Amino acid sequence: MPRVFYGEEITKNELNVSKLSDDDLIQLMEKYKEKLQRYSLFLNEEKERVERKTLLIHLEQVRRKHLNK
Q1: Domain boundaries, given as residue ranges, for the chain
Q2: 23, 16 contact by CB (below 8 A)
Q3: Do 17 and 28 contact (CB within 8 A), yes or no?
Q4: Rounded Cα distance, 63 and 69, in Å
Q5: pLDDT given at position 38
Q6: pLDDT digits (tens, 9 = 90+) for 8-39
């Protein structure tokens, strides 16, 4: 079963690597490795932003709880 990315299936027809030369395969692999690194960086940065927001919310909840005592 093909993997699904963003609601689209990657099929053999869309990325026909069997007809590519060895050099083309190397270049294509480098391209997708770089793309993966960019996505990883973006996702890590987004994760940090979300963690920071949840920490701020938690700290505010703790502060309010102590004020209500």
Answers
A1: 4-67
A2: no
A3: yes
A4: 10
A5: 93
A6: 555 545 678 888 889 999 999 999 999 999 99
